[in-house]
Amino acid sequence: MILLDYLGRMRGTTRGRPPRVSVAEIFWSWVGAFSGIAAVGWAGQLLFAGHDLALLIGSIGASAVLVYGAPRSRLSQPRNLIGGHLVSALIGVACWKLLHPHPWLAAALAVSTAVAVMHAVRMLHPPGGATALIAVVGSPDVHALGFVYVLMPATLAPLILLVVAVLVNNIPRTRRYPEIWF
After folding, report:
1. pTM to 2 decimals?
2. Phi, psi values for residue 38, rounded to 5°
């Protein structure tokens, strides 16, 4: 009986598909994501030309989806965007430094601890989990950054996304960003 109940929860609901998004919403999400990622990439190239300090890490792409595609979500707000990446990067680097002989354990501990701490400090931002993971499974160049990784790319890149989000998401009258700052 317990097993059937457990398996029954996996069926999902009958609520149907998510509602359609307007063409205008799709357009502004595209403009924001393009502008934000372009700004981060351009800043990385300008500031770090000739160095391997790329600001464009995978978790920044995921943040762009949230900040430009779902700007009213609690997960997209500035506190979550900046704080989630910062906290997760700190945790990821610490886990790598402590457990690098066991990367599977460092990865699991980094992501799970990042989730727990983001919850505890009310800064949940799902791409933060990827930021913690990148600190562990990243290239030797990422590992060589050590705690510099927390500042660049894990804090600088989201700050650039935030500036672009404030500018772009407030152009159409149908959008507003942020809902809350802190």
Report:
1. 0.91
2. -60, -45
